[in-house]
Amino acid sequence: MLRAENLGEVGDLGEVIQAMRALDDPRIYEDAEELLRRQTYVLEQLKRFEYQLRREVDGESEELFLAGSDEVPTGFRDLIDEYFKALAGEQ
Predict the structure, then answer these.
(1) Which of 55, 47, 39, 69 is nearest to 7 (CA)?
(2) Maximum separation of any 2 CA atoms in the chain, in Å
(3) Do residues 52 and 4 lie in contact, with contact meaning Cβ atoms separated by under 8 Å?
(4) DSSP the chain
(5) Domain residues of the chain, as ranges?
(6) For a surface tag, which of 21, 46, 51, 60 has the fewest beta carbons within 10 Å of its beta carbon?
């Protein structure tokens, strides 16, 4: 689908998928350091791919997108406001 839309380096994603499939091998779980190394590699490569894909889709926009929401549960807004007032007062 990415190839059809001319988005992202599909080869990069293929390498990540291959690394994820390697995690299916039960022997990988015998060496905790190797498991951590492979998991870290997969996560970093996925982040890199997502970043590149987002840049291609959004163009050269310098706008920053953050995950999450500005909405907070009722009752916490006052505590957050107090926190920032306290921080401002310390300066």
Answers:
(1) 55
(2) 56
(3) no
(4) -TTTTT-S-HHHHHHHHHHHHHTT-GGGGG-HHHHHHHHHHHHHHHHHHHHHHHHHHHTT------SS-S---TTHHHHHHHHHHHHHHH-
(5) 10-65
(6) 60
**Distance in angstroms (rounded) separating the CA atoms of residues 38 and 9:** 21
Closest by CA to 18, choosing from 8, 27, 10, 26, is 10
Q: What are the tokens at 1?
A: 């689908």
- Tokens 């499939």 sit at which residue? 21
pTM for this model (two decimals): 0.54
pLDDT digits (tens, 9 = 90+) for 10-37: 667 888 889 899 999 999 899 999 999 9
